[in-house]
Protein: Adenine deaminase
Organism: Massilia cavernae
Amino acid sequence: MLDERMRNILQQMPKAELHIHIEGSLEPELIFALAQRNGVSLNYATVEELRRAYAFTDLQSFLDIYYAGASVLLEEQDFYDMTAAYLARAHADNVRHAEIFFDPQTHTARGVPFETVINGIWRACQDGPVSATLIMCFLRHLSEDEAIATLEESLPFRDKFIGVGLDSSERGHPPAKFCRVYERARQLGLHLVAHAGEEGPPAYIETALDLLNVERIDHGVRCLEDPELTARLAREQVALTVCPLSNIKLRVFDRMDEHNLARLLDAGLVVTINSDDPAYFGGYMNDNFIATFEALPLGVEHARQLARNSFSAAFLEGEAKRGFLDQVDRFFQQHANTNTN
Ligand code: ADE
Ligand code: ZN
């Protein structure tokens, strides 16, 4: 068990969340409320029955339920309410800044206009209690042409998001499939990230860097299978947005004490801890920190490093980034005696 002091540090330290799919923050209670509001019928009779279906065997088994859950989102207010609920929950975990993924194709494919999606999410970010920016993800199980069409559709809203990402079914959909759309996004001055090395092989991490020019890797935990790649990630200080509870729920690792997060840190990688899809994986940011620190040989110095990494890897500039890093440093000066670890 984690001692009280360590638990307090993890809960109270300022942190940034860099890997959260906003559709994955949709709690079963809100799914049912929105289904009723919008007259959408669900395949589950009760909240409990839906929750019982959250027994995943791999990424695809999760995605099937996650896309079904998102089907209740129809109006701008629905996207607003979902995002506002996430931001309130993140604030309670002392998240000071969030870079939020959204999947427009999940909604436009159902006839929901792009502007309904982005305006609802964006407005909640403006009204929210923490700093928040948006990253638009392309669904990798769809074609590159569809991703390009989505990027074109997003252009009138270019000032409402800061980057693009790549998510959904990883195996069989390598980064190489999306070279042209990433090049176009780069020309538009957007930040670039991609999921790679969650279920897919280390080679996907390498091609995300070399062919897509991504600045961060989402997940990336399978990098340790390739020592040369690991050395490169350390040398180039490429941040990995690791999601421990997600990795257990989706069976990337069988148990938390088998998770490689401590080894990633030992290898000198810029590791961050994130929640991925908190409504589905049993926890928000602090739940992820606590579960990880309970299972692995990690102490105060690691907590400080992870909090610092979350802001140094964030797409924040100058003063804003320095201000958050100062908050972390002040917190650890005041609350933690790092010499005891
Ligand atoms: N979409 C939502 N969560 C995801 C994950 N963990 N991996 C890939 N796509 C996702
Ligand atoms: Zn993810």
